[in-house]
Structure formats: C-alpha cells, structure tokens
Amino acid sequence: MWLFSRKGPSGFSAASTAEQVTEGIDGSGLTAIVTGASSGIGAETARILALRGVHVVMAVRNISAGREVQEAIRKEIPNAKVDAMELDLSSSSSIKGFALKFNHSNHPLNLLINNAGVMATPFILSKDNIELQFATNHIGHFLLTNLLLETMKKTVHESGREGRIVNVSSRRHKFSYPEGIRFDRINDESGYKSLLAYGQSKLANVLHANELSRRLKEDGIEISANSLHPGAIATNLFRHFSIVTGIIDVLGKHILKTVQQGAATTCYVALHPHVKGVTGTYFSDSNVAEPSLQAKDIELAKRLWDFSSTLIHQSDP
C-alpha cells in the first residue's frame, strides 16, 4: 500500500493500521458487538478492540471458526474479554434469537460494528426469501440494529458515554443499479447483476446509517451512526472471482490493503476521540470522505427505511 500512503487531516492514511489509529486509546468499560468477526477485517477489528480493553462479542455465522479466533485473541492478549455468539444475518429468526439472548445477558452495549457481508454471490434467496446480498448486508443489520437499539440507549443513559454504530460499506456503493435501490425488483432474478447487487447493498449501508443518524439526533439520543469504506483488501469476499484471486496473488501487496490496514477505518470510527459527536458521516482511510450523490439523498434514505421496516415485519411469524 505504499502507493496510497498520503496522510489526511486525521493524521492517518490508507497505509495506517488499526493498531496505529487506536494507539493510546483506552476502551476499558466499553462493550462492542462485531458481526462477521470470524475472519478478515472483522477478526482484526475484534482483536484490536480487545487489545484496547473493550469487551468484544463476536457475532459469527460459523461458531467453530469464531471460537478459533476467540482463542487466538485470548492467547495473544491474556486479559482480553472476548465472547463468541452465533448469528446468521440472512435469517431473521437467527437475528431475533441473537438479540434476545444478548439483551437478556444484562451486558451494556456501547459499540455496534455492522461488519459482516457477502460479495457478488450468484442469485440466491435468503431464508426469508430476500435476495441474499441485500438480505445479509443490509436487511440483517437493519433488523439487528433495531433490536439492539434500546440496550444501546439504556447504556448511554446509565454510563453517560456516547454510543457508536458503525456500518462497514464499500466504495462499491457508488456502483449500484441506476435507480440506486430496486425497491420493486429486489428479487428480480432476470435483471440480477451480482456486482451491481453488491453495490446496491453497500449503498443501503450508507443510507441506513444516515437515516438512523437523523432519527437519533431528532430524538436527542447520544448515539452516532456512521458508515465507511474499509479499502480494497485481499479477503475471502473475492472467493466468487477466480480471476480476481489470481490478480491479487500477483499485485496484492502493491495495490491492496492488508487486513491490518483494512480494519483501521472501522477501529478509528469506533474508538477515536476525534470522531466523538460526528454522525451521519462517511469515512475512508480513517478520514472523512465523500459518498455518492445517491448516498446523500435524504428522501431515498427515508424510503429505504420504510421499505426495510416492511420487509422485516413480513418475516414475523
């Protein structure tokens, strides 16, 4: 990543690692949920938060892989507080079960890191009959956030500390379908394009954070909601593209971030004091960045909120 190492106003750059952007920060007393923490930047995010003293709950689809990461973190950081809980973001019943279990645990919740995702999958419907990328990357996190929000509000009230919700999006949010969100054709297999569908789900991540931020500010609640682009990283998100995997093997160290660099912006937005009070903002390379025009569309964000609410209520028994 030496090609992209110019520092921004925050003092950090694309070459900065998660450890560097959180150096000297004490996260003791904070509790975080990190989705998709069994591999890639999710696992590194969990490790860094634990290193800074945060109690980390790893929300993972593959619980055995999650426990391996949990044990690796504990081995490296003997006093780390790390738990693993099962969560399948493509299943509303799994999300509801996770939220119920966490909310009944009496743990506080200061940080919610909506990190998990799938990328450019073939056309598949989720367990709730929603196109898989939209279901996993957006609807699952939308429902999870809604179900955990009261616990976050209670934590803010009791601790007096700002809560933070972080949606891990992508610069691919700028490359969605022309209309942005295909409200009337979410499950249209005939018009499905895997990368555009991925962009649509990532656009939804930014719009969700923006609308959630607006609603929380309107209610005077000290919880921020921001979104970010972690950077192009050599992770298993590329598993559906064998040609991309080959290019990564040859050029990766020069044009792609390492996992340690890829987790930096998430950890910066989650923990850094410079981000206190900042909400409804999009970040990249641990600096404020400019999202697409569609991502800044207030009416589109409101429509997505209503559409998402309808979808999650359709999955109610």
From TrEMBL:
Record's signal peptide: none
Membrane spanning stretches: none
Pfam families to which the protein is assigned, alphabetical: adh_short
Gene3D superfamilies: NAD(P)-binding Rossmann-like Domain
Record-given protein name: Short-chain dehydrogenase TIC 32, chloroplastic-like isoform X1
Top-level taxonomy: Eukaryota, Viridiplantae, Streptophyta, Embryophyta, Tracheophyta
